[in-house]
Amino acid sequence: MKAAVRYYTKGGNTKKLAEAIADAIGVEAKSVDVPLEEQFDVVFLGNSVYAANIDKEVKDFVTENADRIGCLVNVSSAALIESTYARMSKLCKELGIKIDERNYHCKGQFKFMHKGRPNAEDLEDARKFALDIVK
Ligand SMILES: Cc1cc2nc3c(=O)[nH]c(=O)nc-3n(C[C@H](O)[C@H](O)[C@H](O)COP(=O)(O)O)c2cc1C
């Protein structure tokens, strides 16, 4: 199975998750600034919620790389909301992209909230999650 990892981060939390996943499955985590070089069976996409929405950079990446994403796996962190899965799922439906029902989410540090998250346990959970997807 061919897998890729992309992420968008403002504060570094999503980068940590993406790097843990990439390391677990033996690929390199790259920013959404880097387009997919080819078709991938699975694309792990790390993103977060800012002001109750996913960012334009993330939406642009998904839109511009739609024909190279076999299946999108959503990976997110946030301070308050449950996950960005619902928002990402809506976007994928609009673009005709398959999205895996399994998704990874954990709390992400934001100012005084959730200090140290994602922590070592979150990163370990992310690694296990990714390995289960590509097995
Ligand atoms: C400008 C800004 C706006 C945010 N808005 C929300 C929000 O509306 N809901 C929420 O649950 N978390 C919100 N957060 C928290 C982030 O989703 C959380 O800290 C996430 O882990 C950030 O990931 P990053 O470090 O990769 O950017 C916000 C964070 C920032 C910096």
Looking at how many chains there are and whether they match, the oligomeric state comes to: single chain
Cα(first) to Cα(last) distance is 8 Å
User: Helix count, per DSSP?
Assistant: 4
The percentage of residues in β strands lies in: 15-25%
- Stated plainly, the CATH topology is called Rossmann fold
Cα shape: globular
Q: Which range best describes the helical content: under 10%, 10-25%, 25-40%, 40-55%, 55-70% or over 70%?
A: 25-40%
Give the spatial strand order of the biggest sheet.
Answer: 2-1-3-4-5
Q: Which ligands appear in the coordinates?
A: flavin mononucleotide
Mean pLDDT: 97
CATH superfamily: Flavodoxin domain
Count every beta strand, where a strand is a DSSP E run of 2 or more residues: 5
Which residue ranges are poorly predicted, with pLDDT under 50 across at least 5 consecutive positions? none
For the sheet with most strands, the description reads: 5 strands, parallel
3D structure, described in words:
- It is a single chain.
- With 135 residues, the chain is of the alpha/beta class.
- The chain has one domain: 3-Layer(aba) Sandwich (Rossmann fold), CATH 3.40.50.360.
- It has four helices and five strands, in the order E-H-E-E-H-E-H-E-H.
- It has a five-stranded parallel sheet, with helices on both faces.
- Strand 1 (3-7), helix 1 and strand 2 (29-31) form a beta-alpha-beta unit.
- Helix 1 (13-25) packs across helix 4 (120-134).
- The longest helix has 15 residues, at 120-134.
- It is globular.
- The mean pLDDT is 97.
- The structure holds flavin mononucleotide (FMN).
- Flavin mononucleotide binds next to helix 1 and strand 4.
